[in-house]
Amino acid sequence: MLGFLPDDPVIIAVVVILLSLVFFSYLLIRRTILEFRDGMR
């Protein structure tokens, strides 16, 4: 299938969890900054 993906499902699960954590923290920080900017106006 994909050559760069390891066959170990544990490594794949860890990578997926890390990527989702980074994505959700980005969304949280972006929403906080936008609400802070609206509150300053």
Automatic annotation (TrEMBL):
Top-level taxon in the UniProt lineage: Archaea
Transmembrane segments: 12-29
Short name of any one Pfam family annotated for the protein: DUF7859
InterPro entries from the UniProt entry: DUF7859
Keywords noted in UniProt: Membrane, Transmembrane, Transmembrane helix
Protein name, entry field: Uncharacterized protein
